[in-house]
Amino acid sequence: MPISLHPEAFDPWALLGEYQSRLPAGGFGATAVFVGTMRDFNEGDDVRAMTLEHYPGMTEKHLQDITTEARKRWDLDDCLIAHRVGPIEPGDPIVLTAVWSAHRKAAFEACRYLMEELKHRAPFWKQETLKDGATRWVEKNTEG
Amino acid sequence: MSITVRYFASLRERVGRAEDHLEAAGNDTAGGVWSRAVPDQAIPDRVLIAINQEYADADHPVGDGDEVAFFPPVTGG
Lengths: 144, 77
Hints:
A: Aldehyde Oxidoreductase, domain 3, five-stranded antiparallel sheet, B: globular
């Protein structure tokens, strides 16, 4: 399953290894990977925890669309997106995007594309819990 | 049948509920649905709208049985 949402903590490296082990050996020459991890600071404040809300159905659909578009733009062997939802803590992996292709150019470019499109279009919202227990919604993504 | 209206994240908190159900008026648009469902609040400037889980503009038509969602800019990843 190239798209997955994880209500519990997940290990992106285990997921990646397991997924790659099922791809035809020798078919791909490049694997590009991005893993996003929760920080314990944002906008100058200490962040204690975070909740990731999503729109069930629409989120999965748009992640699927993004992978379909990437495979039209580049010659890829496969790609993978995994994203955490629900309550998370600093140090927890939030997102994994991975791309397999014959050569590095397509792999690097498509992996970046998956991540940037996800940031722009996939319906997820972060609510941070600060050190003093106050909560606030993250209003926009960082520039990158 | 009716129109299902959904609100997410900070917008859900601002509206004070997650969902509304409206009778279809026959000439609805997404923006018109907001005005009928949340008459006491102007539609937010940076709102994103989805009709049946696809992004749409405020002037997009909405029909009986459609699901219209309103939410703030997305912040995943």
